[in-house]
Amino acid sequence: MDPLAIVANSLGGLAALYFGARWLVGAASDVARRLGVSPLLIGLTVVAVGTSLPELFVGVAASIGGHAGVSLGNVIGANALNIGLILGVAALIRPIVVSLRVLQWDLPVMFAATALLAWFSADGEVTRGEAVILLAAMLAYLGLNIAAGRRERKASALAGALEVPHAASLAGDLARGAVGAAALAIGARLLIDGALGLAAALGLAEGLVGMTLVAVGTTLPELVTTLVAAARRQGDLAFGNIVGSNINNALTVVGAAAAVAPLAAGDVARAPMYALLALTLLAAPVMWRGFVINRWEGGLLVCGYAAFLWVGLGG
Asked: Which of 5, 126, 197, 204 is most deeply buried (CB count within 10 A of its CB)?
C-alpha cells in the first residue's frame, strides 16, 4: 500500500472512530439521564459500551478479514491502556474517588472477565463455543445492571426527579446515535486497512500492531471521556467508563469476533495476556486503598502500563 494511502486511511479512520463514538455516546447518555439513571451506572453501561464500539467494529471487521491477531491484540492492548495509562493519567490530573459499589461488584467482574479471556486464549485459540460463553456472561452482567437501573429510575420517579424526553428530542438523539454508528463502521474499516498496510510496510506482526497502534486508536473515546470526566470531578463516570469498557472488551468484543470466526492467537503471545492480567490485579490494592486513586497511585498505574509494553514488545 502506498505510504500516503496508509497515512490517509489511518488518520481518516481515527477521526471517524472518534467522532462516531462521541456522537453515539452523547446520544445514549442523554437518553439515559432523562430516564433517571445515575452517572455511575451510565458510565458502567451506556458510556462503557459506547466507547468500546471502536474495538467492537475493528475486532469483528478484522475477524471477517481473517486477521485474528489484530482482533485479540487490540483488546489486550486497549484494556491495558484503559487501566494503566488512561486511568493513571486521569488520577494524575485529579484523584479519583472509587465507589464502594464498583469495588464490591464491578471490579471483581472485570477481574473475572480478564481471567476468563486469559484462560480461553491460553491454548492459542478462542473458539466459537467459548465465544458463546463470553457473550452470555456479558448479557448476564448487563441484565443485572439494567435491573439496577430500573430500581434507580423508580426511585427517581418517586422523588419527582424523572425527566421524560420530548418526542422530537428523543428522535434527535436516535438520529445522532445512528450517524455515530455509521461513522464507527467506516472508521474501523479505514483504521484496519491503514494498520495492515503499516504492518506490511515495516514487517511488523499483525498482533503487535493491534496491541499498540490499533489499540491506541480505538481507545481514543475512552481517553477523552475519562479525562474530561476526571477534570470535571465526575469520578464515578470516569472510573465506571474504564471498568465497564474493559468488561465489554473482554466479553463482547472478543466474543463477537470469535463468533464470526475462531480467533487464533497467532503472533499474540501468551506473555502480553498474562501481563494484562497482572496489570489488572495491580489495580485492586490501588483502588481499595482508601476508596480513592490518588496521584502517586496513578503514577504507579502508568508505570504498570510501561511494564506491560516492555513485556508485549518482547522485553
From this structure: 126
